Each structure stands twice: as structure tokens, then as C-alpha cells.
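re the bet — no i am not wrong, look at it urself. input seq straight from the record:
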Amino acid sequence: MLAALGVGPAEEEVYRLLVARGRAALQDLAARSGRPESETRDILTALAGRGLVVRQAAEGAADVFVAAPPPSRSAGNCGVAVTS
């Protein structure tokens, strides 16, 4: 599904974990994916660069990540939703 956006298998796995959780900290995603935190951070950074993940500062805790919906293909793949 996400391959059309240039998302590889590892990125898709972390994105799907994040979608299932709604929001999660880096450490949680790393533990659930079985990947080192450094690799998970790189994956989240790549997903954020594609607009698929948003980092939110959490007061008194580690930042959490929230999944954003994939960009609409009907908007010419520019990531902007078209409404009528």
C-alpha cells in the first residue's frame, strides 16, 4: 500500500504499528518492532519527511509520535486533500 509513496518494508511495519497504537513513544515502537531505537528513530524521521508521522512534545515525558493518513492520490500526489 505505501510502496507507491516510496515507503520500504521496515518503514511500513513501523507506520502500521503506530497506526494500530494511535500514538506511541520511540521506545515503545522500537520494542514492538524488535528494532534498535536508533534504527526506529531513523525510520520515524523518514516517515515524518514523507508527512506520514508527526512528532508531538509530551510534557514531562519523551516525545510521542502520531500517524498521519497517507497523502491523497486524487490530489495529484501532492499530499493536499481536495474537497468540493
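see?? The chain has three helices and three strands. told u. also Residues 75-84 have pLDDT under 50 and may be disordered. so pay up
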